[in-house]
Amino acid sequence: MTQSTDVSIPKCYNYFRAADSPVGRAIKSRLERRAKSDLDISYELATAWGRAMNTGDRLGDAYIMAAFASPSGSASPS
To answer: What end-to-end distance do the CA atoms of the chain give, in Å?
Structure first.
């Protein structure tokens, strides 16, 4: 599968900022101790995840629109 580089990464995607923060490094260290494995994510993979946040999901979008169209803000049972 080829990832398009034409898709931008949304501003809300803060993986790189969070991963480089003291809290992010501490969480990663604790998870690595528990997993007994190195949990490094490549720059390419993290970037692909960010771009994926801006790709469409027509079925998911239709569900969200239907779910929030009701006055209660939740989907009605069929």
So the answer is: 36
Q: Which among 11, 44, 10, 46 is positioned nearest to 28, based on CA atoms? A: 46
pTM: 0.57
Task: Please give the backbone phi and psi of residue 6, each rounded to the nearest 5 degrees, phi first.
Answer: -80, -15
pLDDT tens, N- to C-terminus, the chain (78 residues): 455 567 888 888 999 999 999 999 999 999 999 999 999 999 999 999 999 988 888 898 888 888 888 676 555 555
**How many independent structural domains does the chain possess?**
1
For residue 41, count other CB atoms closer than 10 A to its CB.
Answer: 12
Domain of residue 32, residue span = 1-78
